[in-house]
Amino acid sequence: MRELRVIGLEPDGSHVVCADASTGEKFRLPADDKLRAASRGDIARLGQIEIEMDSQLRPREIQARIRAGASVEQVADEAGIPLAKVERFAYPVLLERSRAAEMAQGGHPVRDNGPAVPTLAEIVTQAFRARGHNIDDATWDAWRDEDNHWVAQLQWQAGRTTNAAHWRYQPDAHGGTIVALDDTAFDLIDPDFGRPLRGLAPVASDEPEQLELAEFPTEVEVPTIEPEEIIEADVTEELSDEPAPSEEPAAPKIAPHQTNNKDKRGKPALPSWDDVLLGVRSSGR
């Protein structure tokens, strides 16, 4: 690389005239914005001018595409420029997206009865734990859609399948609100995420025995009945001529002129209506 020194300007001021000190050979450089930025040491402006000259995308367009969700690699491939030149303008936008994704995790999902008290991060963590997933393996991201609204994304790997859920995030003074944009996002914030699969219909029954099966024992113990002991009389026992004494005393006989005024249960019998009206006793007197 040879060293040149500036010797002047052309009469119209459009070019800078330089010369080689060893040979005296002269050169000229266009006096454009790129030369002015290089002379001031403005590297950012110089890089911006290089992108504008090397591709059809301006730095503002590059930032707009990254803010809309494009990656640095996608923009670099589309514009046909090195990654380093895109990263120079993409860095502040990537920080903005990371901050929006962090704020969206603190938002409150909107349900039928209003915003939920737990945050999006708390609800999703509980849903992941119930499904056997690890929330630490998931990644958060955010970008602006066509309506300039922030869209938060949660992406995770389940086996060989890459899953993603998307919510619309609206910031406010209370942490912001979250609205599900797809079925996966809705299922994660659904308070009834432990319900049966949608393809199965529960069988309804009005019988109380089928409603609470836990109250009935699974096995019923049947008590064993011991057979009664049968005592056989000893046929070899000698018969005595004298009658055997009775174990229970005989009940006293009732006189013929007296009647038993007790019923079958042993309680006094009540007089009939005829006895009461005519004044006749049950004994006939």
Automatic annotation (TrEMBL):
<dbReference type="InterPro" id="IPR047682">
    <property type="entry name" value="SepH-like"/>
</dbReference>
<feature type="domain" description="DUF3071">
    <location>
        <begin position="1"/>
        <end position="169"/>
    </location>
</feature>
<protein>
    <submittedName>
        <fullName>Septation protein SepH</fullName>
    </submittedName>
</protein>
<dbReference type="Pfam" id="PF11268">
    <property type="entry name" value="DUF3071"/>
</dbReference>
<feature type="compositionally biased region" description="Low complexity">
    <location>
        <begin position="247"/>
        <end position="256"/>
    </location>
</feature>
<dbReference type="InterPro" id="IPR021421">
    <property type="entry name" value="DUF3071"/>
</dbReference>
<feature type="region of interest" description="Disordered">
    <location>
        <begin position="234"/>
        <end position="285"/>
    </location>
</feature>
<feature type="compositionally biased region" description="Acidic residues">
    <location>
        <begin position="234"/>
        <end position="245"/>
    </location>
</feature>
